[in-house]
């Protein structure tokens, strides 16, 4: 297969004598990269996990020889049990529903990919209504299931049986990890070498979060995977030999797969949780212990882990404190539809600017100015020779493009730096003509230990309001309890809304959620804004009516 990409600016594994980077010019696919490592890097580690046994060293490494062979065994399992329909012109689509650790999951997934099938990464934490919809839209043909997910799978199949056009998937039991992973196996039987892969055919399917609409299935081609694997080569660092902390990563999200295929090409080692034993939920304390045991040098994690309690984005004061203490924080930015957009691991920057990022030179972009808001732009990504879009919803100069809907603030001194401050559909346009971004106020209010979440409102009105979901439910039938909570949170709300100048939130415009009507969230923890606004439309209108009568 001829090369299709130019050499990137940042080389990986420079001067390494122990790791040979695979070609990243598009001459081989990601699946073929696995075979490359089996042949060229068999004794180089790709994974590391905490041993959990005081009689052993603190960590154990998994070499490319054993990881690659495990993927081949998973591919043989897939080939033996998965068969394309005689009338189908497309490969089978495989879903994995299993409570297993990342390495077990990814061995199955990349084994199915190596076998020539398409893998649909679906989070089992999706709502019961969403999963059958995604199965139906993508014609899922086979599901690998373990015992813990059998009930979920049965309910999905029962829903599909109600649809006349639905494919009823074949259910297969997940093979144990010990059947796939056999260390230094002298009887290993490798699959035949792969034929050249058409990079423009489907490889995997991801799903949008569903924060603004029903989740959508997004197809990524083999070319898209190759471009993911090149992202690190457009950053500022050579990560060869670094230990990449993936202990808190979920294997069914795009971010985990981006990190994984980046390790395939760079020589960094993925620190994961032990694939042996029963999976348990990660905790901040447990993560710290894993980091120490595996000697992790670079950690990829959600803000909630760093804050202990909270959500994205990382609180400004938490990030600044960590940065000032010598922790190099890299803010990454990307979308499911596009992939990574920011530089993948940038160089050091001032402690107070940790939340800014630079766009990767791998992607082409257009900054659409936000009307009446100097320094604010909607980011639009343009398909280019180095990064071809899998999804597009607009055009720029005749080229396919994707309008992200994300609003970025440009740095006041360095025009190459940006940070995300909101979304186009989140902006509140008051009837007075003032346009406000609710995110900074909401983040500050959510920092209160009394508050679980918060949502500002006021579009088309003369003044702002805020709907607050308490950590401890407040009895909405008890006016005194509601009033007491409002008083307890008032200073926090007043201080937070001070950034809006004259458009501050009045005390009577603080609404408290009802226990019977909790906030609705996406699986990633984002508020479903439009759904919550619809849910509380009556209460919001009543608050404005009461305010107007004063």
What tags apply to this protein structure?
single chain, 550 residues, alpha/beta, Rossmann fold, GMP Synthetase, Chain A, domain 3, six-stranded mixed sheet, six-stranded antiparallel sheet, 15 helices, 24 strands, 29% helix, 20% strand, AMP-dependent synthetase/ligase domain-containing protein
Model description:
Helix 2 (64-81) crosses helix 3 (102-114), helix 4 (130-138) crosses helix 5 and helix 12 packs across helix 13 (479-497). The chain has a 6-stranded mixed β-sheet, sandwiched between helices. Strands 14, 15, 16, 17, 18 and 19 form a 6-stranded antiparallel β-sheet that branches. The chain contains 15 helices and 24 strands. It has helices at 30-40, 64-81, 102-114, 130-138, 150-160, 177-180, 222-230, 254-266, 284-294, 303-307, 316-324, 439-446, 479-497, 529-535, 537-549, and strands at residues 45-50, 59-63, 93-97, 118-120, 142-145, 170-173, 202-207, 217-221, 243-245, 269-272, 298-299, 334-335, 339-340, 357-358, 364-369, 376-382, 394-396, 399-410, 417-423, 428-429, 435-436, 451-457, 465-470, 510-512. The chain folds into 3 domains: 30-301, Rossmann fold (3-Layer(aba) Sandwich); 334-423; 428-549, GMP Synthetase, Chain A, domain 3 (2-Layer Sandwich), CATH 3.30.300.30. The mean pLDDT is 90. The longest helix has 19 residues, at 479-497. It is an alpha/beta fold and 550 residues long.
């Amino acid at each position: 297969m001829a090369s299709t990409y130019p050499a990137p600016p940042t080389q990986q594994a420079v001067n390494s004598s122990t790791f040979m980077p695979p070609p990243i010019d598009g001459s081989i696919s990601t699946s073929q990269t696995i075979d490359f490592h089996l042949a060229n890097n068999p004794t180089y580690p790709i994974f590391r996990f905490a041993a959990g046994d005081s009689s052993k060293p603190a960590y154990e490494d998994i070499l490319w020889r054993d990881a690659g062979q495990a993927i081949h065994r998973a591919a043989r399992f897939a080939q033996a049990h998965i068969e394309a329909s005689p009338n189908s012109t497309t490969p089978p689509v495989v879903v994995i529903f299993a409570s297993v650790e990342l390495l077990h999951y990814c061995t199955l997934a990349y084994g199915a990919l190596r076998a020539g099938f398409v893998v649909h990464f679906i989070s089992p934490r999706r709502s019961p209504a969403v999963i059958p919809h995604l199965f139906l839209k993508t014609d899922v043909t086979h599901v690998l299931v373990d015992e813990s997910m059998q009930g979920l799978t049965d309910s999905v199949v029962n829903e599909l049986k109600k649809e006349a056009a639905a494919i009823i998937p074949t259910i297969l039991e997940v093979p144990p990890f010990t059947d796939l992973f056999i260390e230094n196996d002298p009887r290993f039987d490798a699959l035949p070498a792969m034929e050249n892969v058409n990079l423009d055919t489907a490889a995997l399917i991801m799903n949008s979060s569903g924060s603004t609409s029903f989740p959508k299935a997004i197809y990524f081609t083999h070319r898209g995977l190759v471009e993911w694997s090149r992202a690190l080569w457009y950053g500022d660092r050579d990560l060869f030999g670094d230990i990449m902390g993936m202990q808190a990563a979920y294997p069914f999200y795009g971010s985990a797969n981006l990190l994984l295929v980046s390790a395939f090409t760079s020589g960094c080692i993925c620190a994961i949780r032990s694939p042996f034993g029963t999976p348990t939920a990660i905790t901040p304390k447990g993560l710290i212990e894993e980091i120490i045991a595996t000697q992790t040098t670079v950690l990829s994690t959600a803000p909630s882990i760093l804050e202990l309690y909270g959500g994205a984005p990382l609180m400004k004061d938490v990030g600044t404190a960590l940065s000032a203490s010598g922790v190099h924080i890299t803010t990454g930015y990307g979308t499911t539809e596009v992939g990574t957009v920011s530089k993948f691991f940038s160089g050091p920057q001032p402690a107070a600017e940790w939340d800014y990022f630079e766009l990767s030179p791998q992607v082409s972009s257009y900054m659409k100015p936000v009307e009446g808001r100097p320094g604010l732009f909607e980011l639009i990504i343009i398909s280019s020779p180095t990064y071809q879009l899998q999804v597009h919803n607009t055009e720029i100069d005749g080229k396919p493009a994707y309008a992200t809907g994300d609003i970025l603030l440009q740095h006041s001194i360095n025009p190459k730096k940006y940070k995300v401050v909101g979304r186009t559909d989140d902006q509140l346009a008051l009837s007075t003509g003032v346009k406000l971004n609710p995110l900074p106020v909401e983040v500050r209010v959510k920092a209160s230990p009394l508050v679980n979440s918060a949502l500002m409102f006021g579009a088309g009105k003369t003044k702002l309001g805020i709907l607050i979901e308490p950590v401890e439910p407040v009895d909405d039938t008890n006016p005194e309890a509601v009033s007491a909570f409002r008083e307890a949170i008032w200073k926090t709300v007043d201080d937070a809304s001070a950034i809006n100048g004259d458009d501050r939130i009045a005390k009577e415009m603080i609404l408290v959620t009802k226990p019977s009507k909790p906030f609705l969230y996406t699986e990633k923890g984002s508020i479903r804004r439009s759904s919550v606004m619809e849910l509380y439309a009556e209460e919001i209108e009543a608050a404005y009516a009461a305010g107007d009568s004063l």
